[in-house]
Amino acid sequence: MTVHLREAGEADYPALAAVISAANPRHPMTADLLAHEVRDLRTHPLRPHLFQLVAERGGQAVGQAAVYQIPGMFHPDRYWAEVMVRPEAEGQGVGRALAGALEAHLKARGAREVLAGAYEDRPGDLAFLARRGFSEAMRFFDNVLDLGTFDPAPWTGTARLPDGLRVVSLAELVAERGEDAAWRAYHAAFAEAREDVPRTGEATPTLYDVFRQRVEHPQFLAEGVLLAVDATGEVAALTELYTDPADPDRLNTGLTGTRRAFRRQGLGLVLKLAALEVARQRGARSIWTNNASTNVPMLALNERLGFRPQPAWISMRWGRV
């Protein structure tokens, strides 16, 4: 049966989310979350490009593809590309058709660098990218902690913050300092810590007005943003927990980071332990986090806490800006 490709619209989000979830069950998608992410791209001050396709066979969505510029490491000639096919439609030319359409689109736009990726336990997907001129750029690991087996006893009474610092949630800091002051302190720490996170391209500064909009994200959890703050309300370190769109028993970790002046004092460990307690109180069964293979200190910390690595996500690159 012939595969029909067309540009996707808002009405296609439920079908696209179903394709993404089937193709990558480790990170399922919902229509609401997809719609929010598209709105974030379309309203971003950098005006990143976005192109989405849906592949249909017999009137049913069997694949999806997208090309977009990444606001967090923006360059006008750098793009992210993804092709996803439902498992039952693999090996039937759907992926090739979608990839061909993306390649034509990227060529027309004069792309000089394209990022994509696949899991290490999907050798066929990696070979698919390699045949198109992609090579490995970096590896990232999902690390998963089973909260049912986690024992905090080894750190009881030993993991503590330096004098003058305490742990509060973003919600608590807002109540103490006011919304704008709390969010600006959170943003300042986030922006500095994020600069040193390993990535496949240069980090674009996080604008405060854009950062502030994360409160509207469907997965945002104000009580899951934990901050090490001093007496003035300055944030020295942070860790973030987000809800999962498809699994109420799972929480996902955002950024865990420490400002440069406060590093190597154990702040990350204290905050991670506090986050695990928040997760336990919410009844979560697992916590997922993601780290680059080059982020040795964070990988070691997660391993100490009992996180276990999943198959690596291999980021692939074609060209270079």
TrEMBL record:
This is Mycothiol acetyltransferase. PANTHER family: AMINOALKYLPHOSPHONATE N-ACETYLTRANSFERASE-RELATED-RELATED (PTHR43877), GCN5-RELATED N-ACETYLTRANSFERASE (PTHR43877:SF6). InterPro entries: Acyl_CoA_acyltransferase, Bact_Acetyltransf, GNAT_dom. It holds the Pfam family Acetyltransf_1. It comes from the Bacteria. It comes from Deinococcus carri. Keywords: Acyltransferase, Transferase. Residues 3-156, 184-321 form the N-acetyltransferase domain. CDD domains: NAT_SF.
